[in-house]
């Protein structure tokens, strides 16, 4: 192995883009030259294609994943005083979907696979609980057999945050298709990424789809006839056009990152660096590759000195975020979420990263 120093970025979007550069350029130019930029043919086609990929009746294309979450709760009629069960280690945007509707997030700790602990959800259900929001983190679908069963038993709405796991399955069923509605972000780094902001919801419920369609366009179907209190959250034609290209290569990209993840799992042999467990029934798409280490600063600095850039997902979990301080949670309320927030490091992983770079990271970690 060469000890020659190099720089390994945690993600290089340009390399992922370059894998299908000609097709992305063609798609973007087609949209630009069409003269129609909002609520057009590209968006409609993307909606059809994504719904077909997911095997559901409807996809409603939106401006971001955060909007998808906000509008999903709104369309389901979840509002002031309603409680929604969310993982304590979720991304902040997941919780924003709840609080933007004046509903109350009720946090549940994480399990050893770094997803919501499905075994302790039931204890958090009260007569005010209206919904469960599993957030499939890192590319791994949460334990949806158990969670869907609980939603059914207590007659709760089930909203899935699928922003990090396009193509991930649990028991062979796609993440996002277990509940009432699945919310996606197509932020550029996500498994299916646009070249700007974009998001969507998917559902089999005709009424719900129609409601989100209204909500994304000022609450109107017919211009100037505003039936409900909506917002503007429309996916633009350029993003829809490039997403159609991305969708063609989604499965291939997922396979590529799975192979990279396997190299890490086979190669990393250092007792100071733990690789979290993965559910047996899951097809993990490795949006990220998390490891856990006690001296995180020391580990990150060591890797940095070796040219390796890493990230942390997420250093401040939502239950202790400043914006939610009035909810009154302490760090120690959720021991696993606290541990992950303090020990997690995301290693470089992305489509277009070379095997040599992965090996360089593995070798550096094994020398740590
Ligand atoms: C990225 C992300 C979001 C937010 O999506 P945006 O498109 O950035 O608004 C929501 N939830 C999760 C889990 C995410 O990773």
Question: What topology does this entry show?
Answer:
Elements: H1 13-18, H2 21-34, H3 41-54, E1 58-62, H4 65-75, E2 83-87, H5 92-99, E3 104-108, E4 129-132, H6 144-153, E5 157-161, E6 169-170, E7 173-174, E8 181-185, E9 199-203, H7 206-215, H8 237-248, H9 250-267, E10 282-283, E11 289-292, H10 296-305, H11 335-343, E12 344-347, H12 355-367
Parallel strand pairs: 2-3, 2-4, 4-5, 5-8
Antiparallel strand pairs: 1-9, 6-7, 6-10, 8-9, 11-12
The protein binds pyridoxal-5'-phosphate.
Helix segment tally: 12
Strand content: 5-15%
Name the poorly predicted regions.
none
H and E order: HHHEHEHEEHEEEEEHHHEEHHEH
**What is the general shape?**
globular
Rg: 21 Å
By secondary-structure content and strand pairing, the structural class works out as: alpha/beta
Distance between the termini: 15 Å
The level of helicity is: 25-40%
The average pLDDT is 97
In short:
With 368 residues, the chain is of the alpha/beta class. It has helices at 13-18, 21-34, 41-54, 65-75, 92-99, 144-153, 206-215, 237-248, 250-267, 296-305, 335-343, 355-367, and strands spanning 58-62, 83-87, 104-108, 129-132, 157-161, 169-170, 173-174, 181-185, 199-203, 282-283, 289-292, 344-347.
Keywords, please?
alpha/beta, seven-stranded mixed β-sheet, three-stranded antiparallel β-sheet, binds pyridoxal-5'-phosphate
